[in-house]
Amino acid sequence: MTKRRSSHNLFQSGITNLGLIIIAIIISAVLLLALVDRQQATKPKEATTTMAQSTDSSEKQDFIDKVAPEAVKLKATYQVLPSITIAQAILESDWGQSQLTAKYNNLFGVKGDRTENTKEMTTQEYLNGEWKTVTARFRVYASYRDSLLEHAQLFHKGTTWNANQYQHFLAAKNYQEAAKALETDGYATDPGYAEKLIELIQQYHLDDYDKQ
């Protein structure tokens, strides 16, 4: 009787162990399938992200290609480094996507007071230690070329109250000095303006245009 019970218990124990093994195999298979599905679902997203980054990079290069030739050409007459001009256009127009640039070809946020060649718009300016929204009239240009030309002329001629306003900027020997001189000469109110220009120039190798 004891032997039969022992054999019966062993048999039941064997069945139980076998059942646990089968359950473990099923769980492992389910987890493996879930992992494969997750990886397959992730691949299209990665491909989409890569394509988006490629498109974004292509659009940025297109903008540089639009601005660079004229910036290089203007250097000979107005002594403004093309790298600085291009970086300013990128920063101030948000790669040509700002409303002011997209609608009116104003790359640099140039203001004006004549109603026939300006439009009233709002903008963010750094005043008294903080960013504020202000309303002002901004120049309207027929093309990027016209905006670039007037921008270069501003540095060369100075302001109406100081013809030598940008003397340190024009005397700069490289883009680092020129970017910092823009702050020194009072061009920008943003305290991080020079640093942002330098970062753009280095990231997109814009100083290559200074050598042309």
Provide a quick synopsis of the model.
The protein is mostly helical. It has helices spanning 2-78, 82-93, 99-104, 144-157, 167-171, 175-184, 193-203; strands at 118-127, 130-139.
Query: Strand pairing plus helix content: what structural class?
Result: mainly alpha
Q: Could you state the order of secondary-structure elements as H and E?
A: HHHEEHHHH
Largest sheet: 2 strands, antiparallel
Rg:
32 Å
Shape: elongated
Low-confidence stretches: 40-52
Task: Report strand order across the widest sheet.
Answer: 1-2
Helix content: 55-70%
The overall average pLDDT, rounded, is: 84
Tell me the strand percentage band: 5-15%
Number of helices: 7
User: Roughly how many Å apart are the termini?
Assistant: 103 Å
SS elements, strand count: 2
SSE layout:
Elements: H1 2-78, H2 82-93, H3 99-104, E1 118-127, E2 130-139, H4 144-157, H5 167-171, H6 175-184, H7 193-203
Helix pairs in contact: 1-2, 1-4, 2-7, 6-7
